Amino acid sequence: MQQDATFQGRPESEPIETDCVIIGAGPVGLFAVFELGLVDIKAHVVDILDKPGGQCAELYPDKPIYDIPALPVVTGQELTDRLLEQIKPFAPTFHLGERVDELERMSDGRFRLRTDAGKTFLAKVVVIAAGGGSFTPKRPPLEGIEEYEGKSVFYAVRRMQDFAGTDLLIVGGGDSALDWTLNLQPLAKSLTLLHRRDEFRAAPHSVERMRALVAEGAMQLKIGQVMELHGRDGWLEGVTIRTKEGQERLACNRMLPFFGLTMKLGPIANWGLKLEDNLIVVDTEKFETSEKGVFAIGDINTYPGKLKLILCGFHEAALMAQQAYKYVYPDRKLLFQYTTSSSSLQKKLGVR
Comparing C-alpha atoms, which of 2, 12, 91, 107 is closest to residue 44? Predict the structure, then answer.
């Protein structure tokens, strides 16, 4: 992870005041940090995922991409890493594992944004670079699970300390399930990892570490599926699981199911922006939405001739930043410059 960026995940009592909030840390959102930085606009970046990169890093980190200019072939993760390196000089602050739920204009013209973790921002401009929308965790098909959500069943870890001293059941076999197994095992009173088969999609090193903990007796590994939840008033007391030996009851009072993610427009649909087929309508001069000061770039927007390509999102970010400057610095005139010849831009980029 880059050293110059700041990563935050805890709610703050006071609003965070900034020039711009970027919603979405995929490639287009990351490049927006760069374009905004060139015109002295500081950005905070919010993403529902627990790492930057959006779909590229979450869904196909090792899949080759062939249509990025000057890069004949690049993986989703490599592209993410290169963009993170590129934006280092502008030191953005990341707020990961959070979803922006509310957006409203204040009387002073700024925008107030609030996340599902209770964090509040005050920004002069907003850039929506949310790809296809919010990544929403897939809910396990278990009767009555809604009653437990937010009390004893969680789809993300906001604070590790909340799981200290608990009898924790983690369900899944991917990177998220294994990473949280390794991170929470020292804190939990007991921890069981449940997966439907004894093969994992996670990084081999993580799987090796997990198996070592099982061998040491520090945690349990069960191969099977959750069939039923047991508890009352939203507080989990145990689950029934089915293994190849049959059904058994497993005691637990917290559960983290990692069943993958699905894409939904989410809270954006309620922000009063003009939509068309669940996409945000923008102009092609500034990529501004129906609300002045709110921009939409990348796959989340629509306009005549729109192509859902990463390189198109990069183009949109460049033009967006020119208009955003006028809102952030209304009394200044923007002098267009090239990074190849501008000493001031090169200074911002740390060129020596």
Answer: 91
Distance CA 48, CA 15 (A): 19
* DSSP reduced 3-state for 251: strand
> pLDDT of 13-23, one tens digit each?
689 999 999 99
The predicted model scores a pTM of 0.70
Do residues 203 and 77 touch, judged by C-beta distance below 8 A?
A: no
- Residue 102 CB neighbour total at 10 angstroms: 13
pLDDT of residue 4: 38
Cα–Cα distance between 52 and 160 in angstroms, integer?
Answer: 20
CA 46 vs. chain centroid, Å, equals: 7
Q: CA 132 to CA 138: how far, in whole Å? A: 16
- Secondary structure letter of residue 15 according to DSSP: P
d(CA 153, CA 120): 25
Determine which of 4-13, 125-134, 199-208, 225-234 has the lowest per-residue pLDDT on average. Answer: 4-13
Q: Which of 273, 219, 224, 218 is nearest to 245 (CA)?
A: 224
Burial of 285: CB neighbours in 10 Å, binned 0-12, 13-18, 19+: exposed
Residue 327 and residue 148: Cα distance in Å, rounded? 44
Distance (Å, whole) CA 240 – CA 228 = 5
Q: For residue 95, what pLDDT band results from cuts at 50, 70 and 90?
A: very high
Nearest partner of 26 among 70, 86, 68, 76, judged by Cα = 76
Domains of the chain with bracketed CATH: 6-136+262-348 (3.50.50.60), 139-259 (3.50.50.60)
pLDDT tens-place string over residues 206-239: 999 999 999 999 999 999 999 999 999 999 999 9
CA angle 179, 183, 189 (to 5 degrees): 125
What is the three-class DSSP state of 103? strand
